[in-house]
Amino acid sequence: MVRLGFIIGFIALLGALLSGLAAYRVHDQELALDRIALARAIDVHASLVQDRLTERELLARVASGLFRAPSVIKPNMLEPLRSAIYAFKTDFVVAGWVARLKPNELLPAEDAIASAGFPNPQIRSYDDKPIDLAKVTQPIDVLMDLEPRSNETKALPGRSYEQDQVRSAMLTRARVEKRSVASDPVQLLRGGGPIGIIVAAPVIPEGATEPAGFVTFSYELASLMLTNDDMSLFSVALKDPRREGGELVANDQGVVSSRMTAADGPAPSATRTVSFGGRDWHLGYYAKTNSARRAEQTAIIVAAIGFAITAMVCGLFGYVAYNNLRLSREIQVRIGFERRLTAVIDELNHRVKNILAVIQSIVTRTLRHGSDIDVARELLIGRIHAMSNVVSLLSESQWQGVKLKGLFEARAIPHADRIAVTGPDIAVSARAAQSLSLLFFELASHSDEGLSLVGKHPHITANWTVTGEGTDEVFHFRWEEFNTSEATRRPDSDFGLILLDRVAPEALGGTAKRYFTDASYVYELTAPMETVVDMSERDRTDKISAPVRPVR
């Protein structure tokens, strides 16, 4: 009996020790996992917020760069920009043109506002009080046009921003620094409206040193902060730059309110800083659940189970061993997933930067000084549409490459129905696809639309062949437009010539030539197949898209 009691006591002691050890391990691991998950979710959220802010600031910069101001008091100044700003599909509340008017321009400005169809063309203060124009001696900033026009916004043009402290400070800083600037949080539209932020980009005419006005975009604060996710692990608050200790928070409906943080109140689990409009904004993240309490509850449950099955030493040991192995594998999988996610984000950032660099080059070359704005706009839209199409094709193939014949679809280039395409069914790399897509668009957009077909065959042919073997394989591409000559074919643009003769061949590591025959226009491109296919890029994409597996 004594021996049995000793054995039972030993088993009970061993079971208690093992149960306590298991509870301790589970507590630490659950706490570590929760903290890792929370930190990662916060990092992802802050990155998404920064991307949204960068996109919206880019919209303001692009809009100001595309803006042309022959006269600051011309009515409907935003008319040429409407298609461009809506193409970005950002969630701005109001886009506006704020002109910097001299005293002698105020009366013509009232006439321009009236001719644009706004109900109250009088130049007035921001609180709708009339301004004695005879007493104005310095230039003032006046809202001249806006988009969208609704019953709520039509009454805004004609207001001067001089008496509004927030908007006046924003425009003054944008004028001095000559870059896009964000305002303090402010009620949009009228008093009692949603709280948001306004970003203003100065429009500086060519040869001038001072802005002729500003293109402004206003955004609701809740959408910028991405606060309406009920399933997130945290709630987010924006540090109020207007007062120390103040925070701006949004509820599930997106209504933003202000609050003061108490000295003895809960501190944020983490803080992140994002940049927007030439200033830093501080986000505070508050965890919705108590990780320590949750870990303690899990540990108590494990300990209770251990005490309940103390007599089953083998089962208890097996359970603990299995549980520890499962948790260890989960940690390894999560660590591996985070590393893979970091690699994917780095790769995505690299590809997005490349795409933005190409778009920047397209915009700069297309909208060069002295170009016809209507022709340039059509070419710009077409070139960006060609880039958008190839990115869509790459996304559909998970960036594994694009079938070369897919770049000749009607949605990608003009006159696709008149092009006879022949060649082996090869998949080109992402980099090659972007260069070839722009190349095909330039060739197709400058082909003569008035030429008839020859017999039953289209008068444009595009064919390619692959010669050689192994590392000596060479890609040959030939574009030929029949029944055309140097006199009938529309000349290539400056950007098109650079793309045809230098950019596309250099991107593929090859050579190109173009010439006219007696009956056709010919463009030929030759490049090594290893640069056209680029297996290293495909292998890298395969590696980061492979499923994460636990380490055994």
From TrEMBL:
<keyword id="KW-0812">Transmembrane</keyword>
<keyword id="KW-0418">Kinase</keyword>
<keyword id="KW-0067">ATP-binding</keyword>
<keyword id="KW-1133">Transmembrane helix</keyword>
<feature type="domain" description="CHASE">
    <location>
        <begin position="142"/>
        <end position="225"/>
    </location>
</feature>
<dbReference type="Pfam" id="PF07536">
    <property type="entry name" value="HWE_HK"/>
</dbReference>
<feature type="transmembrane region" description="Helical">
    <location>
        <begin position="299"/>
        <end position="322"/>
    </location>
</feature>
<protein>
    <recommendedName>
        <fullName>histidine kinase</fullName>
        <ecNumber>2.7.13.3</ecNumber>
    </recommendedName>
</protein>
<dbReference type="InterPro" id="IPR011102">
    <property type="entry name" value="Sig_transdc_His_kinase_HWE"/>
</dbReference>
<keyword id="KW-0547">Nucleotide-binding</keyword>
<dbReference type="GO" id="GO:0005524">
    <property type="term" value="F:ATP binding"/>
</dbReference>
<keyword id="KW-0597">Phosphoprotein</keyword>
<dbReference type="Pfam" id="PF03924">
    <property type="entry name" value="CHASE"/>
</dbReference>
<dbReference type="GO" id="GO:0004673">
    <property type="term" value="F:protein histidine kinase activity"/>
</dbReference>
<keyword id="KW-0472">Membrane</keyword>
<dbReference type="InterPro" id="IPR006189">
    <property type="entry name" value="CHASE_dom"/>
</dbReference>
<keyword id="KW-0808">Transferase</keyword>
